[in-house]
């Protein structure tokens, strides 16, 4: 057994393999042993295929920067041929006969995929507590949320099962669990990573896929492997002039950083998070950067509404598709919140969707103007540290109300009566800093710099200019070297 498994990041493990100091089988042995030890307590992994992973080693893993490194996939979006994909739902058990494009690129990097991780149903809530598989526990404090929707992946990295795991981000779903579990998570620019072949974009461009990692350099190196145009995609982003990995090897120039304290949803900032934000600002100044308090010109009353309209429209279309493909029995097993969001989406018109997308443009313009004069924007990733299980999912009474009304298209009335805001605010308030990155498509990262007084991680979010992940990686690597993770 490779006893030092937990001391290495993914590139470090791959380098040991290249040097002949450890074998891919020994790395897989160590990952499986760690999963067997810790996963029963945290429920990060919900499906394993160990034998298949050992067979990949026998067949010969591709030669790449991560050859032999154990890896896990979030059980959503990323199709892996021959393995079931539930998407966190009791109603879905699809077994794809193909790999999605990003999985194909992951395989080419040399990683050895052996499991799939827990996720909320269809990634629709930012805590990983699905009825299908049960709650994932935060490795830093059992009984507390991992965040979501990449909560299982974040927990697997934080618990040392793997050094790097796949995730996806539609409203903060990489950055959010990275913050609450204390790992590094970057959401790349819109179109940087592929989403095909099933779709060119998801949630009107809000969704991006990438990885959660132990180190900054692993995230950068994997983006070098996974990014680039694919056939049929609506975006064609030019590759950077140098590798993302190279950006992590040198300190960035002194940056002009906008510091934002104002949540973009009507909520309060936890005092410990606010103190961590101020501490981060001083740490950045000590490193030679200029930090200026500056808020983007975004109207918060419209901000959450425009996002919610688009997502509910997408959920309505998804539920209609699954009903056609798999029948009403499939949809009947969906969680009440999913059914309710689909009902709201059906209640809205195409004009409502277009108006919401116009609101998205206004936010894109506001952020573009702010980033004309600043290299990056700093804010908390989440307004609070992790919360106990049961806080974010809807209550039983709320679920019963959803089940009673989901067949009647009363979504517009629910909006006008303020009931949508009332029921959605507990979740949306926690997403008050992350949603902006999905609406704008800007790259953003959560950096695990601080802890609360009771030991829960507090991540800081940095948002960069479109297609400028290199600056983010350079800054994150500098913070990792000079300050260290929480």
TrEMBL record:
Belongs to the amidase family. Signal peptide: none annotated. Residues 26-472 form the Amidase domain. PANTHER family: GLUTAMYL-TRNA(GLN) AMIDOTRANSFERASE SUBUNIT A, MITOCHONDRIAL (PTHR11895:SF7), TRANSAMIDASE (PTHR11895). It comes from the Bacteria. This is Amidase. It holds the Pfam family Amidase. InterPro entries: Amidase, Amidase_CS, Amidase_dom.
